[in-house]
Write a structure and sequence with these properties.
Strand 15 and strand 16 form a beta hairpin. This protein folds into 3 domains: 2-43 and 160-199, no CATH class; 46-157, Sandwich (Jelly Rolls), CATH 2.60.120; 213-334, Jelly Rolls (Sandwich). The chain is 8% helix and 39% strand. The chain contains 2 helices and 20 strands. Strands 11, 12, 14, 17, 18 and 20 form a 6-stranded antiparallel β-sheet that branches.
Length: 339
């Protein structure tokens, strides 16, 4: 096991010191490269960027939110952040959180009866195994005593303090990247350890956009005419892959169903104002489920802009088939690969 540098910022080795024919500079360059790689590898991804949920959970009720993501594969713990508020001045209210929903360890917090105050709360989800597979992550929220307002939610992978010397974490044995140490071809060791760790880094900006409701309050529509599920279109943007790129690929899925069987099925359509996305999925099943993830290409970071935006705006629309209702509980967009 090797410890991840606890620097606030990653190292910045000078590549000017790496010259053909010159002596290997283990202390001044390779060690800094190794530390920088491990600093990046140990950082957790933002799986669900914090967003305003603004729904209520009545006393005795449990509501579940679901999100689709592809984790980076090195995390051993997730941190859920919630913004909670009691809905009344007269009744003491507590909230019980579990993640994953149903099977997670229940943690209860008292949010009192001060309806004017917002209370941040962190829930720690310890993972049973590391995974880089596309999957659902979920959380359920139950209220006791009075009604609770859930004003916001987000989820990120906690940073690692140490990486294993194996083919999952690719921790580098930094004691082998020092002056006078031999350069050998051994996994997680010497220059091969640096090269392998660099090749297997996952620097994706994972979570791009999520919107989620409990299935009992899902967005629904009978009409076959598409209608947006948000009042205003949110901005959407992914990381820049190279200096000339203005767009990059990401994936989306929705957790949806048709309320009754038959007919031609409902529709969920994603479109963008600048990058030209127009992608429609057909919903036919009568049980809530995630659709097979779909690739779209949206705008990437704009380093020439003061705020970094290209002002690409996302519209999510749904439609039934005119006689049957479509229900959409969640829409998730994430970066699957930067290869």
């Amino acid at each position: 096991m090797t410890y991840v540098p606890r620097n606030l910022l990653r190292t910045k080795p000078s590549y000017l010191l790496v010259n053909p024919g010159a002596p290997v500079r283990a202390a001044g360059t390779w060690r800094e490269v190794a530390d920088g790689i491990q600093w990046i590898a140990g950082k957790g991804a933002q799986l669900v960027p914090s967003f305003s949920t603004n729904f209520q959970v009545a006393a005795g009720v449990t509501k579940t939110l679901r999100f689709r993501v592809r984790p980076r594969g090195k995390a051993i713990r997730r941190v859920w952040g919630l913004l909670l508020q009691a809905n009344t001045f007269s009744v003491g209210t507590s909230v019980t959180i579990r993640a994953p929903a149903v099977t997670g360890t229940a943690v209860t917090t008292d949010i009192g009866f001060r309806a004017l105050f917002w209370q941040p709360f962190q829930y720690i989800e310890d993972l049973t195994a590391k995974s880089s597979t596309e999957q659902e992550i979920s959380i359920d929220i139950a209220a006791t005593g009075g009604t609770a307002n859930v004003l916001g939610i987000g989820c990120y992978e906690e940073d690692r303090s140490a990486l294993n010397d194996d083919a999952t974490d690719y921790g580098i044995r930094v004691e082998t990247v020092v002056p006078r140490a031999p350069m050998i071809d051994v996994a997680q060791t010497s220059l091969r350890g640096v090269y392998d760790a660099f090749a297997n880094m996952d620097a994706r900006r994972v979570g791009i956009f999520h919107i989620a409701l409990d299935t009992g309050e899902a967005f629904s529509r009978l009409s076959a005419t598409l209608q947006s599920i948000t009042d205003l279109p949110p901005k959407i943007q992914v990381g820049k892959l190279n200096s000339g790129a203005t767009t990059a690929q990401c994936y989306w899925s929705c957790y949806a169903r048709m309320a009754t069987s038959g007919g031609t099925g409902g529709s969920v359509k994603l479109s963008t104002s600048l990058s030209g996305v127009s992608d429609t999925a057909t919903i036919t099943g009568t049980t809530f489920a995630w659709i097979t993830s779909r690739a779209i290409t949206v705008s990437a970071d704009n380093f020439a802009s003061v705020d970094g935006f290209r002002n690409d705006e996302l519209t999510i629309e749904i439609a039934g088939d005119g006689t049957r209702v479509v229900e959409v509980a969640s829409v998730s967009i994430w970066v699957d690969s930067v290869a």
